[in-house]
Design brief:
The protein has about 450 residues and is an alpha/beta fold. Helix content is about 35%, strand content about 15%. The protein is globular and about 65 Å long.
């Protein structure tokens, strides 16, 4: 597969051209990457008006993922989330409301998009969950919620995989959405690789209409590299308007280093990736077996992620993270209960061996977890009004009864303890303490 962006950047770096244009380093090395860091010079195309090498590269990505259109982001899935929600709202048909039905474990970018685009949210709460990071949605819950609405929402929005590696039943949930005349939009930030499994599990493959992937989270792409995917099921107007939507929420100075890395990743995905992915999955499965044989309790939903349920084994997730860190292993995430390891084909055999050596043995008896319930605070103000209202940062312990201004989450994506416009409850204060949230932004009184 051709790599037009990377080829152009390399050619320009080797051309000895006097750079009387941005950026200010002029190709002189400070970090070492500067010769390849360019702007929209002649022949380099432009991300939001792509008709040259960027368009060619995005078309290559669309063929790889089997989409109607795939667009690049250099500002992560956050930009893509805003753009796909913009498309869902602005292109909704006359029978659909200005509502997004969303599983509660959203990224902050979703809440900020609600303020920017000004749509209403109907939350899908988990029937049962042991972590703010997880929000399983059953077909029955979605069916009941959609039946209760006076008209179809503009879209249903899910996060899958979640931070702990749990996958929603996208196929079943997509069928329900389509039967109710609405779209399924998915934050697939942690699952760009899922299309390349022997039995693909990518949301687009399973029935989602539109989704975002953070390429940099699981593929060899520089930080900020992401995709917005539009399925072949969508009307052509979505593909036609997608660049405009991305431009509204993106910088006019996209990183060509990141674009080149997305471009080079196409060639890797087309040539070497699938056997490398399978080898990595085999190694991860073997690591899980070894950890379980030592007595560790874990979950291993999506193939490239291991979640160790540390507190069930006598140690907090943060203490286990410290143990790993002391042995030169840095995890993806840790909280009082769990520790998350994210692995890819780029991890070495030494990495796997170091994890096994560093994690050691379980700590002993299960830690006692206080009884915590999810706070369902009353929506006192619209999200948009709360986010743009004057606000102040106060100690979380003094926030009872105040109106949340900025969404408060333990990590993104996760169930926000409080969302902008909601009244902060006693249950929220208990979760603030448990997840060590010290301060919260509230609407100024």
């Amino acid at each position: 597969m051709l790599t037009p962006i990377a080829d152009f950047v390399r050619s320009y770096a080797a051309s000895d051209t006097a750079r009387l244009h941005m950026p200010g380093h002029k190709g002189q090395s400070f970090l070492g990457c500067e010769p390849f860091d360019i702007t929209e010079v002649h022949g380099a195309d432009a991300l939001y008006e792509a008709d040259g090498i960027i368009l060619q590269s995005e078309e290559n990505a669309a063929r790889l993922f089997g989409t109607q259109r795939t667009l690049y982001s250099t500002e992560g899935s956050s930009q893509c989330i805003r753009a796909m929600l913009h498309l869902c709202i602005t292109l909704r048909n006359s029978s659909q409301s200005r509502v997004i039905v969303a599983a509660r474990n959203v990224h902050k970018a979703f809440v900020y998009a609600a303020a920017l685009i000004d749509f209403d949210i109907v939350w899908l709460w988990p029937e049962k969950t042991d972590s703010l990071c997880a929000c399983p949605v059953s077909a029955q819950t979605l069916e009941s919620t959609l039946n209760s609405l006076p008209q179809p929402p503009a879209a249903v929005y899910l996060t899958s995989p979640d931070y702990l590696g749990n996958l929603q039943d996208i196929g079943a949930l997509a069928d329900i959405c389509h039967a109710h005349g609405t779209l399924l939009a998915v934050d697939n930030a942690h699952g760009a690789y899922l299309h390349f499994l022997p039995n693909p599990l990518h949301p687009i493959d399973l029935g989602a209409d539109i989704c975002c992937d953070s390429a940099h989270k699981t593929l060899p792409v520089l930080t900020g590299g992401a995709y917005l995917h539009l399925s072949n099921r969508l009307p052509a107007i979505y593909a036609q308007q997608a660049k405009h939507a991305m431009a509204i929420y993106g910088s006019t100075s996209p990183s060509y280093l990141t674009l080149a890395s997305l471009d080079l990743c196409n060639a890797y995905l087309a040539r070497d990736y699938q056997p490398a992915l399978q080898k990595a999955i085999d190694n991860i499965d073997a690591l899980c077996e070894q950890l379980q044989s030592r007595g560790w309790q874990l979950s291993h939903g999506e193939p490239l992620k291991i979640t160790l349920h540390a507190s069930r084994c006598g140690i907090s997730g943060q203490q286990l993270a410290d143990r790993l860190r002391a042995n030169k292993v840095e995890c993806e995430y840790a909280d009082p209960d769990d520790l998350v390891l994210m692995l890819t084909p780029q991890n070495t055999a030494e990495d796997f061996a170091r994890v096994l050596s560093a994690v050691g043995q379980p700590g002993g008896e299960k830690l006692i977890r206080p009884a915590l319930s999810l706070p369902k605070g009353r929506q006192a103000l619209p999200v948009r009004e709360a986010i743009f209202a004057p606000q102040e940062l106060i100690a979380a312990e003094h926030a009872l009864g105040r109106i949340c201004a900025a969404p408060t989450v333990a990590c993104p994506p996760a169930i926000p303890i409080a969302v902008s416009g909601e009244v902060i409850t006693q249950e929220a204060l208990q979760l603030f303490r448990y997840y060590q949230v010290d301060s919260v932004a509230v609407v100024k009184e």
